[in-house]
Design brief:
With 344 residues, the protein is an alpha/beta fold. It folds into three domains: 5-173, Rossmann fold (3-Layer(aba) Sandwich), CATH 3.40.50.620; 208-260, Adenine nucleotide alpha hydrolases-like domains (SH3 type barrels); 266-343, Elongation Factor Tu (Ef-tu), domain 3, CATH 2.40.30.10. It contains seven helices and 17 strands. Helix 1 (14-24) packs across helix 6 (164-173) and helix 3 (65-81) runs antiparallel to helix 4 (88-107).
């Protein structure tokens, strides 16, 4: 294997630490820490420095707090304003982590950037194909589906063939014994702050009360702001009935939460907008693919149809529960990522 200069994105967690240790066996490795907006930044940086010192690599800190606020926090808040449920990790990977951050890493003389994601990249001629990680419980390909060819050609995922237990054992063999039980949180910039509290501080005007109504328009209650609700939500509605009610829609124009029963949550069709095809090639219309509508969704068989240049339709073989506008549908052919698009 030709020795390369690899910039490893360090988070202070077990996955980036294991990746740094693996790469150091064959390459010149330089650590990079992406300093963003959020709580406890100094503590995070101190922890990453300690890990880099123990691994035996230098660390550079790249401050992207201003850019992160302008792109990700703005996306996060405005998406909720529109009555949608955002996916900040998907957008951050595309625009920040493998966008601005990787640009800096490569500009500082690195041949490639590496992270601790559980996914795989394989060359197919001149094309890079993105695949699921070998560990189905930790596969993170869903969050990487918006990456393009220019990005994929300069990325390494050293843990793509590993499972989590192997990762823990590997770092423990190298003296790192305090990682177990320290999984990273879903939304890094929130810390322990609940989403509703964060949005109340950043979007005070959207915390207005409004009606909770059925599909027929019958008023069933009062909500305290649309951003407290998402599709499929059952708790917090304050409606007593013999069978539970669920959120099935959000209408920012009328400031209404729309509710229904379990059957109302299930649909066999969705639309995506601005589709991105990972290898640059659109799927075959009429062929069967597997589509995931959220990260923890197992995926379901579906056919894909082009509506126009901006929109494609996904038709599932069986109805899916709680399809949520604002989230991303990711299309697979077995383990290979075909592309993605925002659910409208």
């Amino acid at each position: 294997m030709k020795k390369k200069k690899i910039g490893i994105a360090m988070s202070g967690g077990v996955d980036s630490t294991a990746s740094a240790l693996l790469l150091k066996q064959h390459h010149d490795v330089q650590g990079f820490f992406m300093r963003l907006a959020g709580p406890d930044l100094d503590d995070k940086e101190q922890r990453v420095r300690a890990v880099a010192d123990q691994v035996g690599i230098d660390l550079q800190v790249i401050d992207l707090g201003t850019e992160f606020t302008a792109i990700i926090l703005n996306y996060f808040t405005t998406t909720y304003q529109q009555g949608l449920t955002p996916n900040p990790c998907m957008v951050c990977n595309h625009a920040i982590k493998f966008g601005l951050f990787m640009d800096v890493i490569l500009a500082r003389g690195m041949d490639a950037m590496a992270t601790g994601h559980y996914a795989r990249i394989q060359k197919d001629g001149d094309t890079c194909q993105l695949y699921k990680g070998r560990d189905p419980a930790k596969d993170q390909s869903y969050f990487l589906a918006w990456l393009d060819q220019q990005q994929l050609t300069r990325i390494l995922f050293p843990l793509g063939e590993s499972n989590k237990e192997e990762t823990y054992r590997f770092v423990e063999e190298h003296g790192f014994t305090d990682f177990r039980g320290q999984e990273s949180q879903d939304i890094c910039f929130l810390g322990s702050t609940p989403v509703g509290q964060f949005l109340s501080q950043h979007l005070p005007r959207t915390g207005q009360q409004g009606k909770i109504v059925t599909q027929k328009g019958e008023t069933m209650g009062v909500h305290q702001g649309l951003f407290h609700y998402t599709i499929g939500q059952r708790r917090g509605l304050g409606i007593a009935d013999s069978s539970p009610w669920y959120v099935i829609g959000l209408d920012p124009k009328t400031n209404r939460v729309i509710i229904g029963k379990e059957d109302d949550l299930c649909h066999n069709r969705l639309l995506i907008r601005l589709p991105h095809w990972t290898a640059g090639q659109a799927p075959d219309e009429g062929a069967t693919y597997q589509v995931r509508i959220r990260y923890r969704h197992q995926g379901a068989d579906a056919r894909i149809k082009k509506i126009d240049d901006l929109h494609w339709e996904v038709q599932f073989d069986t109805a899916q529960r709680a399809i949520t506008p604002g989230q991303f549908a990711v299309i697979y052919n077995d383990d290979r990522v075909i592309g993605c698009g925002e659910i409208t």
